[in-house]
Write a structure and sequence with these properties.
The complex is a heterodimer of chains A (112) and B (114). Chain A is mostly beta strands and 112 residues long. In chain A, 0% of the residues lie in helices and 60% in strands. Chain A contains no helices and 11 strands. With 114 residues, chain B is an all-beta fold. Helices cover 0% and strands 49% of the residues of chain B. Chain B has no helices and 11 strands. In chain B, the strands form 2 sheets. In chain B, strands 2, 4, 5, 6, 9, 10 and 11 form a 7-stranded mixed sheet that branches. Chain B has a 4-stranded antiparallel sheet with strand order 1-3-8-7, with no helix packed on it. The chains are: A mainly beta (112), B mainly beta (114).
Chain lengths: 112, 114
């Protein structure tokens, strides 16, 4: 079983819909990242969080450390949000806190 | 503008040839990383460097080599020993590797071995 699991793998939505992408992990972490990968391949960091909730524009990321779960929400989705969204965790403690463990990604398609 | 550049964007090589992928950053970051991405899989760490003239193997280092002679540059060589080199390669950097810092990614190089 992968240490980081994302769901769903694929998600198709209509413009304007509220989107939720989930990430569950099975290890202790010091931080969790949400990344966005556009069709060209480049990756942009959206959020880095270790507790609670962060908001940036129409994007909201939450994390529940006790339940080992994070969600990425997109409000009022738009076709330009179409991308692969990747969850990555930084394991806690020790000398390996530079390393990220990645989920396989969620492919989001928003239709006009 | 500050950022990470990778070149070339697309690279084709014949089987058995070594090939070097370029990664340059002008963010003054100490740490740099190389990842490999395959369809349907998460990114996997190949090598990382926390400081100039020092680097460590990641999870899938076999068949790859790196150097870190300058702070801003971290080239990756895919050798003929890499059994399945066709993949998308991403370079990243962070302010410091040993502390809690966000990683910034380059645009990637898609390598196809014919």
């Amino acid at each position: 079983k992968n240490e980081v699991e994302q769901s769903p793998q694929n998600l198709t939505a209509q413009e304007g819909e509220f989107i939720t992408i989930n990430c569950s992990y099975s290890v202790g972490i010091s931080a969790l990242h949400w990344l966005q990968q556009h069709p060209g391949g480049g990756i942009v960091s959206l959020f880095m969080l270790s507790s609670g909730k962060k908001k940036h524009g129409r994007l909201i990321a939450t994390i529940n450390i006790q339940e080992k779960h994070s969600s990425l929400h997109i409000t009022a989705s738009h076709p330009r949000d179409s991308a692969v969204y990747i969850c990555a965790v930084r394991k806690g403690g020790g000398g390996s806190n530079y390393k990220l463990t990645f989920g396989k990604g969620t492919l989001l398609t928003v239709n006009p | 503008d500050g950022g990470i550049t990778q070149s070339p964007k697309y690279l084709f090589r014949k089987e058995g040839q070594n090939v070097t992928l370029s990664c340059e950053q002008n963010l003054n970051h100490d740490a740099m990383y190389w990842y490999r991405q395959d369809p349907g899989q998460g990114l996997r760490l190949i090598y990382y460097s926390q400081i100039v003239n020092d680097f460590q193997k990641g999870d899938i280092a076999e068949g790859y080599s790196v150097s870190r002679e300058k702070k801003e540059s971290f080239p990756l060589t895919v050798t003929s020993a890499q059994k399945n080199p066709t993949a998308f390669y991403l370079c990243a950097s962070s302010l410091q590797g040993w502390s809690y810092n966000e990683q910034f990614f380059g645009p990637g190089t898609r390598l196809t071995v014919l």
